[in-house]
Structures are given as C-alpha cells and as structure tokens.
C-alpha cells in the first residue's frame, strides 16, 4: 500500500470545523439564544396553560361554540385534552370558591368526549329502532370479578323518549354511598375501547358517567381495570305511549370496603 | 503559514454554520414561557375569550383579573390596552361583527368600571 502524504485527509481542517461548530452551537443554544417572542399557547408554563384552559372553558360555557373551543384547546397540544380538562375540573371541584370554573371545565371536557363518541357511533345509533326487526338482546350483565373493588348495586333499562340514542348511564358511589368522581371506566368491545371518567357531568352527579352505545356491538365494562360486567348491548324498548325507542341502561356501582 | 490560515478559516466556517443552525434552523425549544410573549393572534383570541365569558357573567372584576394573564406587571396594569389591541387586530384580520361587538362591550364595560383606564391608554 502506498502511503502518500499528499493524499492524507487534511485533519487540521476537520478539527477546525468541529471546534467552530461546537463553539457556534454553545453560543446559539446556551450563551446567547435568540430572544423569543410570538410563542404559541403550547409553549406556556403549566400554570398559564391551566389559565388558558380555564378561559377556553368559560368562553365555551358562554357561547356553546364547540368548534372554537376544540380549536383553542388543541393549541395547548395536550396529549389527552379531555383528561387534562377533567383533572383540572376535579382540582377546581375540591374548592368551594371555584365551582363555576369546575362546571365550565367539566362541561367542555364532556362536550369534547361526546363529540368524539358521536363521531365513532354509527348513524344507526340515533335512528329510532324498529322493535319488530330487533333481534333478541341478551340481558347484559355477567358476574363481577372476585377482585373487584366495586359491586353492581342495580341495573335498569329506562325507556323515556323516542329521539334519544341508546345511552349507558353509570353512577359510582364510594363505600359511604357518596358519589365518587374521577373513577376510570373502560368500555371494551371487539372493535374498540373507550375510556370514561366519572365527574364530567357534575350537573347530574359527581359520580356520573355516560356513553352512547352502538347497536349490535357488545361491550364489557371495567372499573379501575377490573372487569365488572359484560354483554352490554343497546336495547330497544317501548315508551309508555307505545312508541318504540332506544332504552338507556342505568347502572349503579358501590365501592366495596 | 497557509495551514494556520486554513485552520482558522475552518473554525470560522464551522462557527458561522453552527450559529446559523442554532438561531435560524433549529432554535432552542421554548418551554415555560410567559403569556406576555404570546403571538399577537393568540393574545387577541385570549381577549376574545375573556369577552365571551364576560358576556355570560357580566363580572367585570373577573374579566380584569383574567386579562392580567397577558400583563408583565403584577399590579397597576391597564386591561383596556389589551382589549384595544385585540379590537385593532380583529378589525385588521376580519373578525366577525359578533366577535367585534363582544370586544366593544368589554371595552365599554372597562371604561365604565374605571374611567382612568381610558385616560391612560399607554402601558
């Protein structure tokens, strides 16, 4: 092999380049970073993000404009906007002086969650059912797991109005029979999985959560990752006036000590 | 001697390239920023949110407190400035008449609540 000194790479040039790059990056990123203006809400410190979230919720409570509320919340780039709103609502709920704020935050969280659920539900979910064509729907509930920290206290199919979709309405109570907010519920089907949290509808109850069932899909409900019930399906029923309608399943859970 | 010049030129070249990269191509990520450096459109939209909320509750002191979010000053700030700026931005950017009316209502309420706000429109 011929070792020709004329063809050696100019290492001193590479070394100089690296020294310059390092010095330049130290200057640009550490010693003298560019003066930043014109940031987006995503760059705000967390306490300011909370204030931005709160104002978005209060504005939504005033205007009812979900599209605008959704766009504003998206600016914060929260990983899970509904959870961020719910968490902040629960903090506000603990303070008597911020009940209005809690309602506004929970209201926006609920609207966002319903919007997402509504997108996922098929058009059939809001079409009034034909009882004659509805196949037999099994009684939904199976036994709770032994390790469950909640037990199913009651189940009821409520048949009120013809123009409502098939709701699953859940109330969760603690061991002292007080409504329990912040309980994580999961509805799992073969096709999908949806997360619910109690407390998003404080006007109903702090322990309340709801979900629109998609007909012909069978769900299983878990509370805090423990399966409580299975075989939950949308069920048709007859109102008092004899009209066919989707019924709403009403489930009450109590914490077990 | 030429080598020394070339070495210096390489350092200079690397330095300039790195400064350009660090300032223009990939500046440091901003986290934990203060609201007073929000971009103008976000500031205006925040003021609009305050105006929307004010329309529902008519609590001007609450609105003044909420506008303080945009201020560097902890005390003695003039909330009217933010509303005026937002209105100006809204007119330029074609906000809807309904949104401009919300801002006008808030502006009027601030002037009524404390006439000194209107008397000192500069920061």
**Helix content bin of chain B:** over 70%
Structural class of chain A: alpha+beta
The overall strand count of chain A is: 10
* CATH architecture descriptor name of the largest domain in chain A: Sandwich
Q: Specify the helix fraction band of chain A.
A: 25-40%
Query: Could you please say which CATH topology of the largest domain in chain A applies here?
Result: Immunoglobulin-like
Largest sheet of chain B: none
Strand content of chain B: under 5%
Order of SSEs of chain B, N→C?
A: HHHHHH
Distance between the termini of chain B: 59 Å
Q: Whole-Å distance between the termini of chain A?
A: 83 Å
Number of helix segments of chain B?
6
Query: What is the chains' assembly state?
Result: heterodimer
Q: Indicate the proportion of strand residues of chain A.
A: 15-25%
Summed over residues and divided by their number, the pLDDT of chain A gives a mean of 80
Q: Evaluate the radius of gyration of chain A.
A: 27 Å
Shape annotation of chain A:
elongated
By secondary-structure content and strand pairing, the structural class of chain B works out as mainly alpha
